[in-house]
Amino acid sequence: MTDTVQAEVIMSFLVSEELAFRIPVQLDFDIADPFAVRFTFDLPGDMPVTWVFSRELLLDGLSGPSGEGDVRIEPASEGHLGEVFISLQVGAERALFRAGVPPLVAFLDRTDRLVPLGEEEVHDTLEAVLDRILTEAPAG
Length: 140
Fold this sequence. Notes:
Blueprint: E1 4-14, E2 20-30, E3 36-41, E4 49-54, H1 55-61, E5 71-75, E6 83-90, E7 93-100, H2 101-114, H3 120-136
Antiparallel strand pairs: 1-2, 1-7, 2-3, 3-4, 5-6, 6-7
């Protein structure tokens, strides 16, 4: 059994109303940090940038506005839940991305099979207990 989930999603980096670039975004989930998802954006001409945010924030953003401050996710339009906007902000700088919902749902579904939403703390405790037992077990 694997301890991680990875996926690559093509998103649109919205530079302005007239200009957008399609970019690959690596999505990562690790049971060692079951509350978080990592998005690594491979922007043209720049080094890849990784953002870490709550798996629950991503899930909530697929159906309605979610997040405060640096990360916001919301459906691209009210009546159509096929795409979401992902807004990332550092100080006055903001980057806006548009992504299709189906690959994000598929990614979240795979993470939920490893660690069901709402059971992150129980899973983390079990992992810690197993690690301690295996570490303390006498060799033989």
